[in-house]
UniProtKB/TrEMBL annotation:
One of its GO terms (biological process) is cardiolipin biosynthetic process. It is an enzyme of class 2 (transferase). Pfam families: PLDc_2, PLDc_N. It comes from Crenobacter caeni. Residues 212-239, 389-416 form the PLD phosphodiesterase domain. The lineage of its organism: Bacteria, Pseudomonadati, Pseudomonadota, Betaproteobacteria, Neisseriales. This is Cardiolipin synthase. NCBIfam families: bac_cardiolipin.
Length: 476
């Protein structure tokens, strides 16, 4: 009997492996992940099959899929009438804007005013002040809210504003903000009348049918439809956040936005709110107080489940291809995949100055080693790689020729480029681009350049770690 049982277990595992292979072959996956999943299923009997069920595909669940369709049916998706774009926005912006519009249906707009803020204290103080002045409504969507320090000023402003009768809605990722959602701070918000909801909740019984690691990674603040924020900063004070991680304080930047592009920001928040709660917007998905100024051309580019998942990857690759003089990239996590890695190599080979800035120490050792697997071919092609030593550099930005900027929540890694709910601003504005280049140069002053010769001479042990991390990087 034991012999028959053993053969039955082997046969069952073989059937499960075959099922995964057939499913992977029939399903579109990011490059490399198909082979990785087959390898995992072969290497981990039964467990590999269960892993594929839980995180192998991008399913958001039947209920959320129905809400995506309902949103599209009621509002035509988030299609907005295209506001005018100034003719002086330049040919490169026009090319990228056309691509972004085809991918997301959110048009570019002129007449925006943007302020790049790189000091966390200033960001949180300004955000709290804007919330305190709100008269129509406050909408926030963030991945993490961590109590303590300046983040508490945002909480206090929300409570005071809600008690004045101003509608306030807050959407926090169920995993990233798990501690805060169960905290006394969250209870205070709810008691004051703030609508506080957890995003992307998944119960244990749903795991075979809903991918459990899809995250709401966007950072959105919209106040009265007249002021908005997005960028890399979560609702955290770095002096109180992950102090035991051994990587220093998180270093972030945000954009404070005024102008017509806030219509797009309102549409993205409305989509996220309906996707998580099932509640359709009570009015058209437009901001209420947008006023145009002579200023920046801007376009919002969301990506993630229910939309074009790889929209931002496509846009970044095209922006790199458009570059003629200089590309400055800042990202905390760099696992770009072959398409983006080759685009950066090609840019350097055709004479473009390409400078990549990443943290010297990362809070994820696996991602750190997967990232460094890409360094050698980039260095050989002439890409400058700099390791930031002033903390965990968390800003996500790309500057193209000092004229175009890509700025927001998107890391240059598999999760951001293919999986999570993300948000990026495409900008053509001399003042913002100048400020962004200056910010990058300030970061570089606290960074060490990677020497190509020394990197090639690193130990076999380090190469093995990088190679092993690369094998599983499509699954990260």
């Amino acid at each position: 009997m034991s012999g028959w049982l053993g053969w039955m277990i082997v046969a069952l595992d073989a059937l499960l492996v075959l099922a995964v292979v057939l499913r992977v072959v029939a399903t579109r996956h990011p490059p490399g992940s198909s082979f990785a999943w087959i390898l995992v299923t072969l290497a981990l009997p039964f467990a590999g099959f269960l892993l594929y069920l839980m995180v192998g595909e991008h399913s958001i669940g039947r209920a959320r899929r129905a809400r995506v369709l309902a949103f599209a049916e009621r509002f035509g998706g988030w299609r907005l009438p295209p506001p005018p774009v100034p003719h002086d926005s330049g040919p490169h912006f026009q090319v990228l804007s056309t691509l972004a519009n085809q991918l997301t249906a959110l048009p570019a707009s002129g007449g925006n005013r943007l302020q790049l803020i790189s000091d966390t204290h200033t960001v949180l103080a300004q955000l709290a002040d804007d919330i305190a002045r709100a008269e129509v409504g406050v909408d926030l969507a963030f991945y993490i809210w961590n109590a303590g320090g300046d983040a508490d000023h945002v909480e206090a402003a929300l409570i005071a504003t809600a008690l004045r009768g101003v509608p306030c809605r807050v959407l926090l990722d169920a995993i990233g903000a798990k501690r805060y959602l169960a905290s006394e701070g969250a209870a205070r918000l709810r008691a004051a009348g703030v609508r506080l909801e957890a995003a992307m909740t998944v119960r244990a019984w749903q795991l075979p049918f809903v991918r459990g690691d899809l995250r709401l990674h966007r950072k959105i603040a919209l106040i009265d439809g007249r002021v908005g924020y997005t960028g890399s900063l979560n609702l955290v004070d770095p002096r109180y956040f992950k102090q035991d991680a051994g990587v220093g304080e998180w270093v972030d930047a945000m954009a404070r936005i005024e102008g017509p592009v806030l219509d797009a920001l309102a549409a993205v928040f409305a989509y996220d709110w309906m996707l998580q709660t099932g509640e359709p917007p009570a009015r058209a998905v437009r901001a209420t107080g947008t006023v145009a100024w002579p200023g920046a051309s801007a376009q919002l580019v969301p990506s993630g489940p229910g939309t074009e998942r790889s929209a931002n990857l496509r846009l970044i690759v095209e922006a790199v291809n458009q570059a003629r003089r200089q590309i400055l990239l800042t990202t905390p996590y760099f696992v770009p995949g072959e398409a983006l890695a080759l685009a950066l190599q090609n840019a350097a080979l055709r004479g473009v100055s390409v400078r990549l800035l990443v943290p010297a120490r990362n809070d994820s050792r696996l991602v750190q080693y997967a990232s460094r697997w890409y360094f050698e071919p980039l260095l050989e092609c002439g890409v400058d790689i700099l390791l930031y030593r002033g903390g965990l550099l968390h800003t996500k930005s790309i500057s193209i020729d000092g004229e175009l900027a890509l700025f927001g929540t998107v890391n240059l890694d598999t999760r951001s480029l293919h999986l999570n709910f993300e948000l990026m601003l495409l900008l053509h504005d001399a003042a913002f681009s100048t400020a962004l280049v200056a910010l990058q140069q300030g970061y570089e002053a606290q960074a060490d350049a990677v020497d190509a010769g020394r990197w090639r001479a690193r130990s076999l042990r380090e190469r093995m770690k990088e190679g092993a991390a690369n094998l599983v990087s499509p699954l990260l």
